[in-house]
Amino acid sequence: MADYAARADYYDPSTAVSMFDAAGWQKSFASEPNGGSCVEVNLGADKVGVRDTKLADSPVFVFNTREWEAFLIAVKAGQFDLPA
Questions:
Q1: What are φ and ψ of residue 70, in 5° steps?
Q2: Is 0.85 surpassed by the pTM of this model?
């Protein structure tokens, strides 16, 4: 496998939390009282962060707003629904 030079526009999921306002993390309204298997979302001005609800220090996955909109459209269309 080829080695690739590091680029400044890449981010490290383990430190990406610093890209977001700490007060901006929101749990799903459907989150279980004990934390369950949910995620938190942080809607930044030009990016969206997603992390594990139970682990405040978990890696943060970052999406631009167009990627996030495409994901939401797919969810609403049922593209990720499990078979009955």
A1: -65, -40
A2: no
